[in-house]
Amino acid sequence: MAHQHSHGHADGAGRKLRTAFFLTLVILAVEVAGGILGNSLALFSDAGHVLTDVFALGMAWFAAIQAQRPPTERHTFGYHRVGILAALANALLLFVVAGLIVYEAVGRLRHPEAVQGLYMFLAAGVGILVNGYIGMGLRTEQQNLNVRSALMHVLGDAAAAGGVVVAGLIITYTAWYPADPLVSVLIAVLIAFSAWNIVRETVAILLESTPPGVNTSELIRAVLRVPGVQDIHDLHIWGITPQMPALACHLLLDDQTLSESERIVGQVRQVLEHDFGIEHTTLQLECRGCGVDSVFCAWRAGSGAHNG
Known about the structure:
This protein is mainly alpha-helical. It is built from eight helices and three strands. 65% of the residues lie in helices and 9% in strands. The radius of gyration is 25 Å and the shape is elongated. Mean pLDDT is 77; it is low at 1-9 and 290-308.
């Protein structure tokens, strides 16, 4: 049932990403046309951002499809991390776009050019409306990092389009043309900030860091409170994806029957799932102490380690 539930989410995310992909192509066409007619760097900058949205949403859509593929002998965890790689690629692409926008904006600030504010206002207005519709559809799938990285592209573009509207109004009523490249720089900063957040999260997953929100010391104390558990060591907590936290550890139990040990393991699994949201667990049972060289063997609940 959990497998079917996961596939249901993946199917829904895939459909929403597909819709977002084609609607973003419409925004791109409108803003390129507006940039040509209005001679607006801000519109061209935003169109460049929208172009990365097209690639980002395309990769996210592809990754959502790949995530539905079943595990194989070679890929026993399945293809869930295709979405993580797509998110990282999208974020790196955003950095490149931000740099190009700043480069062009500096040239426009040195040599301002006449801009048609009305075209800026109309084209960016279309971008705001369509991106708002796309964002409303994607926000229900934010627990998926792949979708969230695509959503960051969409929301960033909506905010950038808002800046273009403001610049268009300023130019229309005051003819102050530097507003166009200045808005472009603000768009670039917004893009870079969004990209940095995604890079940090994807790198943390690829380095198999402890997932955000999981307090390691608290988890250890909770497991040690289960009757029959003497100790826990060789503890590893990581995320296959943000929605799939995993845990592996060694449990030192009292010397007892196998059936009693299974009952204790069941209680530990229940604690991990209910209190920490960790369903994918691998628990190795021992009835003797671990060696001094074992990873985290000396780590106790009172060590003060904290993640969250």
